[in-house]
Design brief:
The chain is α/β, with parallel strands linked by helices. 37% of the residues lie in helices and 15% in strands. The chain has eleven helices and 13 strands. The strands form three sheets. The chain has an eight-stranded parallel beta sheet. Strands 9-13-12 form a three-stranded antiparallel beta sheet, with no helix packed on it. β5, α3 and β6 form a beta-alpha-beta unit. The longest helix is centred in the last third of the chain and has 25 residues. It starts with a strand and ends with a helix. The protein binds flavin mononucleotide (FMN). The site of flavin mononucleotide (FMN) has 30 residues, from β5, β11 and α7.
């Protein structure tokens, strides 16, 4: 399999494990993926929820939890590790700075357009930082807006881009009516993003790899998107169904037990649609029942916490811990295909084998012509 190069970083396999909050991808999963030669990613969304003082000292709790997870991951691997930070999160600056200080190799910035970075970073010398910055986008237009803003503000551009299509799990960067529209399929938006980036690569004399995400399930899928111009892939759903994934057994069982028709699109309090496994909690919410909760600190800038029907951070924390009566599991459109829990090593082995089989076929067809 080709390697993925992001600046001076080079992976052994072009596979990134997508950051999965709340608590689904922490040090166990991230280190296992990094040890197999991919990029293992710690998600910061709701990371402080597992600290005892999360309701009283939330900013400190978030930062402490992230510090701990990065240090735990580094103790278990010398591979490449990333941190996923939602732009919509209230302590975005705090978490970006913490991840840089702790030596994360790559920062994946999603759920909103990362148009700015914390003032505390050396903004005039971003290229000298060891940490790489990678926005997550869902269109060529969003890519253009981000690159133009960075060029103007920092005379610097991001180090890679993840293009996340509408089949992904979790929050989606699409209007609800576009999710199933062929014009917004990953196959369509990936080449658009590649062409937006090209002139910037030339202008900055820098190679900007594009990473495809959303619905990628097999090694053949990886091959297909690499043929379409991606230099790597980001996968979430497949990594949930591993022993090392940091979620509870009940969360993983929801994946094993779900059917295609159970996977639904929800309106998240974040203000974006999201893809999840439908359950009684989500039925209750969509029937108009308002859950009672205490919001300690408006963790999402975009959350209208006085009017939303439930607290998404709490619901996802409950699910991560195994209480799916009072929460729900985010999942990609292909989650119904999961039929067993395997190790990260087995999963990566399978994906590499499938990729190699298709690429051999591809080169045979090519040489026959
Ligand atoms: C349970 C779950 C939680 C997720 N949480 C986040 C998150 O906190 N931040 C983010 O940028 N993406 C999140 N995602 C998206 C993944 O990082 C990844 O891009 C996506 O799942 C890829 O699609 P796939 O699941 O079809 O492989 C989440 C996905 C899942 C399944």
């Amino acid at each position: 399999m080709p390697r993925l190069r992001i600046g001076d970083l080079e992976t052994e396999i072009p596979i990134i494990q997508g950051g999965m909050g709340v608590g689904i991808s922490l040090s166990d999963l991230a280190s296992a993926v990094a040890n197999e030669g991919g990029i293992g990613v710690i998600a910061t969304a709701g990371i402080g929820q597992f600290e005892p003082d999360c309701y009283t000292n939330y900013m400190e709790a978030d930062k402490r939890a992230l510090q701990k997870e990065i240090r735990k991951t580094k103790a278990k691997t010398s591979g490449i590790i990333g941190v996923n930070i939602m732009v919509a999160i209230s302590d975005y600056d705090n978490l970006v700075q913490c991840a840089v200080d702790e030596g994360a190799n790559v920062l994946f910035l999603g759920a909103g357009l990362p148009l700015r970075l914390p003032e505390t970073l050396p903004l005039d010398k971003l290229g000298e930082l060891a940490t790489k910055f990678v926005p997550i986008v869902s269109s060529g237009r969003a890519t253009e807006i981000i690159f133009r803003a960075w060029e103007k503000r920092y005379s610097h551009i991001p180090d890679a881009v993840v293009v996340e299509g509408p089949l992904a799990g979790g929050h989606l960067g699409f209007k609800k009516e576009h999710i199933n529209h062929p014009d917004y399929a990953l196959e369509k938006i990936l080449p658009e993003v590649v062409s937006v980036i090209k002139p910037y690569e030339e202008q900055f004399n820098k190679s900007i790899p594009v990473i495809a995400a959303g619905g990628i399930y097999t090694g053949a899928d990886i091959y297909k998107f690499m043929q379409l111009g991606a230099q790597g892939v980001q996968m979430g759903t497949r990594f949930v169904a591993t022993y090392e994934c940091d979620a509870s057994p009940e969360f993983k069982e929801a994946y094993l037990n779900c059917k295609k028709e159970d996977i639904v699109i929800i309106d998240s309090p974040v203000g974006l649609p999201g893809r999840a496994i439908g359950n009684r909690f989500l039925e209750r919410v969509s029937s108009g029942i308002k859950e009672t909760f205490r919001c300690p600190w408006k963790c999402l800038r975009t959350c209208d916490f006085k009017n939303v029907p439930y607290c998404i951070a709490l619901a996802l924390t409950n699910a991560k811990k195994g209480n799916l009566e009072e929460g729900f599991a985010f999942a990609g459109a292909n989650a119904y295909r999961v039929d067993k829990i395997i190790s990260v090593k087995e999963l990566i082995g399978e994906l590499v084998e499938e990729y190699m089989a298709v690429s051999m076929q591809g080169s045979r067809v090519g040489s026959d012509q």
